[in-house]
Amino acid sequence: MQYTFCPKCAGKFQEIKDNASHLQCIQCNFVFYQDSKPTASVILENDKGEVLLTRRAGEPFKGYWDLPGGFCELDEHPELTAKREMKEELGVDIELTGFIGIYTDHYPDQGDVEYTLNIIYTGKIIQGELRPDDDVDACQWFSLNQLPANIAFKNGQQALQELKKQN
Description:
Strand content: 35-45%
Number of helices: 2
Structural class: alpha+beta
């Protein structure tokens, strides 16, 4: 997102460039760092070696398949985010079984772009029955060799490719 005014004094921002692009208030000198937002997702696996993907009920990428997950809350560890999101989105309790990787990406949001730092785990369901919530309109198990073509975000595509390499 591009901001114009300082959240501390309402002065006007100017762009400064050092190793990255930052905004600095011309009135109070406050520097605003535009950082990536952390997310946590889980590639859930079943006993057949299939992975669970969710179909997005809203924009961006409405109707595309996605890894279940979401944004970390303030001061929330990504592992807790992953478990919370599985409970919220799918109604299940999970156990994290591994770590796939960390990927940078972006999240288009009503014309703006949020840059994301995506932390992706593997896991398995330990309790509950799959019950997609409001931001998911379906979920389905897929073989790693027969994944759908319309996977929503680059980070999910990369993580699934990494899992294929590991198997």
